[in-house]
Amino acid sequence: MSAKQFDIVVIGAGPGGYIAAIRAAQLGFSVACVDEWKNDKGGPAPGGTCTNVGCIPSKALLQSSEHFDHANHHFAEHGISAKDVKMDVAKMVARKDAVVKQNNDGILYLFKKNKVTFFHGRGSLVKAAQGTHEVQVAGATPETLVAKQVVIATGSSARALPGAVFDEAKVLSNDGALRLGAVPKKLALIGSGVIGLEMGSVWRRLGSEVTILEGLPTFLGAVDEQIAKEAHKAFTKQGLKIELGVKVGDIKTAGEGVSIAYTNAKGEAKTLDADKLIVSIGRVPHTVGLNADGVGLKLDERGAIVVDEQCRTNLPGVWAVGDVVRGPMLAHKAEEEGVAVAERIAGQHGHVNFNTVPWVIYTSPEIAWVGRTEQQLKADGVKYKAGTFPFLANGRARALGDTTGMVKFLADAATDEILGVHIVGPMASELISEAVVAMEFRASSEDIARICHAHPSLSEATKEAALAVDKRTLNF
Ligand code: FAD
Ligand code: NAI
Question: Which listed CATH number (3.40.50.2300, 3.40.1280.10, 3.30.390.10, 3.50.50.60) goes with 4-158+284-352?
Fold first, then answer.
């Protein structure tokens, strides 16, 4: 079997890898992309965690469960009566699987369109010689690929609690959490981060009694305190039980369900019994099978591939992007790095601005932010002005019947440059884009305040929050 030659081999077809491959192909390189993810028939399923067991399927279930919640609790206020509303969980999950498949197929189509050669199997770095790298693909058809440049985008996997392996039957990672065949009567989650809140919301809306055990004493510590407080209030009102400051002990799975021993914030020994447990305590970089040791690829103490600001590893011609390197584990961050690396290989000046990477938590209300929080600005000793505007005073939010939350602007006290925008409320995931654009162009809060926003729209709350920085809201 002779080796196949490419300019660039990308290992991993998640958002970091497949986007790097497409951008590199657009720039005129011959590109191979290797990915090992299998669908339920053993075929290729490119798109990585994001497409298969992350962003896309979680949003599909969030949408289905939100429709169910609306039919049960909010249709009546619009004069719509819907009696005996039922959820067919198998159908909901099948719809989610179909959405995932559309995305898998979409990526295979994009590879064809851009002339990226796809290999299904596990890629390992074998050796480097005379400025080229050899990558072996272990799959149905073993292959040897040779390229001058390699981009590693092998992503991350769920972190397990010591002593509680993921069996995906009772102790679930994000994978099992997205594949439950029925609504568990009692659902326990460990970790009230992004996955805990999104998955907890899905199953609570469908009828589970949900309890989340969180190790830290503060709720959503990375989120602006005022926003986190508002979100906590809303989640508690919905019936999500969140216990902060707990220390999780033994987890027992013998017998019917799962039993979690823990010490609460007051130091009392407690036990939580549930039908299922989702462990959502963060993710770890995934380098299994890459042969990092064999080729001397440097990893840090967390197992992440060590890269410089430009995503160069310690091996010449080998780059790494996305969840497998430092920085936020977000699909759009992985994509930006993938594009930047392809452009750098082409001698261009690819750039990723970490200060303007938005975060979104797709709960109801949604939480979204970009830039620094009020607590970070205080810690950094920055003098700032704050302006907030509640959705309660926004006409579109009232018409939607969704007035929870607010938009909050933080701007430099002297220059008025926007330093952070934080939103909790309806469609925060979409509204945050305006703030990202504004911050990318280093706009002031006055710039946003002077821009014409459509009426009635939720985006008027953004304008009003910008006006609030100068204490001149018009509708509140
Ligand atoms: P991945 O998407 O993990 O892709 C890596 C790919 O590499 C996989 O296909 C894997 O099979 C393959 N691979 C690994 N090793 C090898 C090898 N040796 N050979 C061949 N192939 C290999 N982020 C957001 O921005 N928004 C969201 O709404 C969001 N929701 C999420 C919900 C959940 C439940 C989870 C778990 C994550 C979510 N994320 C979200 C995070 C997002 O999924 C990741 O940040 C993103 O997928 C990282 O992209 P990546 O390309 O670095 O890695
Ligand atoms: P996370 O980092 O968001 O939250 C983990 C939580 O678990 C933290 O609050 C942490 O304090 C807590 N924790 C850690 N160890 C614990 C322990 N032993 N006992 C109790 N609590 C403990 O991680 P999560 O939710 O697993 O998600 C992983 C990553 O996936 C996210 O950080 C994010 O990067 C990405 N993601 C993004 C989404 C989005 O953009 N909407 C959605 C889901 C995931």
Answer: 3.50.50.60
